Amino acid sequence: MAHAEDGARSDGGIDGDPIIVLGTRIVEPLADLPPEDVLDPDAVASYGAGTIGEVIDAIQDDYADAEPTILVDGRPIPDRGDIDGFPPEAIERVEILPQGSAVRVGGAPGERVYNVVLKPSVASVTATVSHRMATEGGFSDDDLEAVLTRVKGRDRLNLSLAFRDSSLLTESERDVDRTPVAGVDERPYRSLRPASRGIDMNATGSMRLLSWLDLQAAGRMNWARDDGLNGSAFAEPLTTRYRAQGGSLTTTLLATSGQWQGSAGLRVALRDTLFRFDNPETATATIGRFRSGSKSRDLGANVAINAPLVQLPAGLARLRTSLDVTQVRYDPRSTYANEYTRTDRNLALGLSLPVLAGPRFGRLTLDGDLGRNWLSGGERLERWSLAANWQVRPWIQFTASTGRAQMPVDPDLLTTRVYSIDNISVFDPVVDETVYATLIYGGNPELRTPRTTTRRFAVSAAPARKINLQLSTAFVQSTTHYQIGAVPPTGSSLIYAFPERFVRDASGRLITVDSRPVNFGAHKQETLQTSIAATIPLSGAKQGVAARPQLRLNASHSMALSDTITLQDGAPAVDLLEGGVIGVGGGRTRHTANGTIAVTKGTMGLQLDGYYTGVSLLSIGTVTERDRLRFGHKFTMNLRGFVGLGSIFETSDLAKKGRLSGVIANLTKARRLTSSQVGNVPEAYQLIYSDPIGRTVAVELRLAL
Fold it and tell me: Which UniProt keywords apply (predicted)?
């Protein structure tokens, strides 16, 4: 991996000659921590990323980090989204600070800080166009994006406009086995994926007001539409249409003075959704047009302070506090539901205490956080957490944490208008058949507030700095009381636990399913997570990635040790690893894994990504006639290659900052095979449903001007 000199930066623009300036720009709480690694522009280019957000994601994979805190030019930002959309060509360097540094600037205990240093002067326009299509035909999508970027010192602005369009994919375009209804083949009238179209506009920027004060703002607007098919009735297709539009604006004042940091912000978000669907009216042989929608408005204000408290022998103790007030207004746009308004007042207090510091015992820090949320109506929610982070040596660290949190229920789940859609294909696990039924959707005002208790113990090590070898393992235990979930007819246990949600006719055929959300009992999980990452130079060259090809490797594995849930208080626990289910599809998969192998040289690279999902089970049938569906393992591979056009068209100014990329997703057309112990596989769990699109090929052209 290429490195830049510590404290060095370029004062040229994207194409300017570098001018070295001594000094490192970073807030004072981190000034005594030298970076573990510094990525220069060549190292950034080797990721083949299209945005700074993609660069950060790739660095997270390389360093096995879960929640790094992001700084820009050494200063905090309100939200990572405020820098994600900037082009990577604007980066002068990225400083990777040691584990445990994030807590000094209000981040999570045990995590790193990434300091993204931008070039002091940038003026660029970036255009990206891509096309993706399925090798089995029937599906394609197109994406267009234009980005305007300006950076001058601490002032920066990024404007983006993106358009996306995806085609409709019907069952007749795939090998779907569906029983005809009244002699009619409905496959041309049922969509596996709706036609989709969307537009996104984003503007983010920062302005220096004083040497210690910055104003940051972000505005976003989006429009989306989906059009699908839901079968045929009376020789006319049944359609579903979804429309959504929304926008948000946030402004934040960020102050940094010595060891003190503070922020004050305002935000507003508006959203308008409309869902239209057709239901057949059998009595009149006509099609009824129905609609459901909502308008929502979120208003918020917040203040936060991160301040030094007292100098201890092991270091500076720090205090952090914040107050956030939010008002949510929800209008279901219906005569059958009332307007809903809720005000949340959220107060948080945190303390970071350095206990040990020195070469003999390492560095030990204790962190504690308390929070209380007052909801309008009198409900009071509480949360707390404790964490210990012990860096025994610079290359090994232990982290232990525990906490409990109550989070307010999403207003959509409480107040969405109740509506029903007919002619939905569902699997009835009791009689082991696929039927057409009426599904009821909407909110549930009786939902209780979930409460989650989490315990985590982790070990991370970096024993070989030359190849950036990162090893980590973590044990996570969590218990959620009153977990919220829908009630689809996927498993027999759900139907027996909530019999009032499933209506049958006189013959026992399932005709109505009420899938509105409910509270379950206690959901208990234990998981073991491991990861490894390394970056291996493939030559002895020391300067610049262009002369230094490298091999990047990373892999992670998650094993569910246990996963049980009581569907209702007092009911026996259901084992989600042995056929129990609380969602759509099979039960919990015990093993999941993913990994990446990439070979890069300068602006050229080839990357292979792999994703593994293990076996899961689903118990179906009656108490006396049991069956079990087995959802087999699935291993998916994606191959991506990219090349900088400047290395091909050396004399072209237009191609100098261009890049051509190609991706083959699901290289082997992997799909998850379902089998039954005693009978045939239900129609609802056909092989094609596990991945309707299948293998796709995509080409992307990106030009930075």
Answer: Receptor
What H or E segment, with its residue span, contains residue 57?
Answer: helix 52-63
pLDDT greater at residue 614 or residue 688: 614
Q: Is there a contact between 103 and 352 (Cβ–Cβ < 8 Å)?
A: yes
Confidence of residue 177 (pLDDT cuts 50, 70, 90): confident
In three-state secondary structure terms, 98 is: coil
How many Å apart are CA 432 and CA 678, to the nearest integer?
11
CATH 2.170.130.10 intervals, the chain: 1-119
CATH fold of 1-119: Ferric Hydroxamate Uptake Protein; Chain A, domain 1 (2.170.130)
60-78 pLDDT, tens digit per residue, is 999 888 889 999 999 999 9
Length of the chain: 705
Distance from C-alpha of 498 to C-alpha of 520, rounded to nearest angstrom: 10
How many CA atoms are closer than 13 Å to the CA of 673, on its beta-carbon side?
6
Structure-block tokens of residue 458: 């982790």
Task: Tell me the two tokens of residue 319.
Answer: 């205090």
Residue 375, CA distances (Å) to 265, 315, 612 in order:
20, 38, 42
What span, in angstroms and rounded, lies between the C-alpha atoms of 383 and 372? 6
Residues 486-545 pLDDT 10s: 887 676 778 888 889 999 999 999 999 998 999 999 999 999 999 999 999 987 655 444
Element (H, E) at 496: helix 492-497
Q: Concatenated DSSP letters for 574-596?
A: EETTTT--SSSSSS--SEEEEEE
Q: Is the C-alpha dihedral spanning 32, 38, 41, 44 positive or negative?
A: negative
State the CB neighbour count (10 A cutoff) for residue 549.
18
Separation between Cα atoms, residue 68 and residue 78, nearest integer Å: 14
Q: What is the distance between the alpha carbons of residues 455 and 475, in angstroms, rounded to a whole number?
A: 8
The beta strand positions in 135-182, using DSSP E, are 140-152, 155-166, 169-170
pLDDT at 338: 64
Q: Cα(379)–Cα(663) distance, rounded to whole angstroms?
A: 50
Whole-Å CA distances, 418 to 297, 574, 683: 20, 29, 28
Least trusted range by pLDDT, from 264-278, 466-480, 540-554, 661-675: 540-554
Q: How far is 472 from 459, CA to CA, in rounded Å? A: 6
Residue 27 makes CB contacts below 8 A (sequence gap 6+) with 71, 74, 75, 76, 105, 256, 261
Q: How far apart are the C-alpha atoms of 102 and 384, rounded to whole Å?
A: 19
| Mean pLDDT along residues 246-253 | 98
Please list the alpha-helical segments (H only) found in 326-397.
Answer: none
Q: What are phi and psi of 414, to 5 degrees?
A: -90, -35
Half-sphere exposure of residue 301: CA atoms within 13 angstroms, side-chain side: 0
Torsions phi, psi for 56 (to 5 deg)? -60, -40
Question: Taking Cα atoms as reference points, which of 136, 132, 239 lies closest to residue 687?
Answer: 136
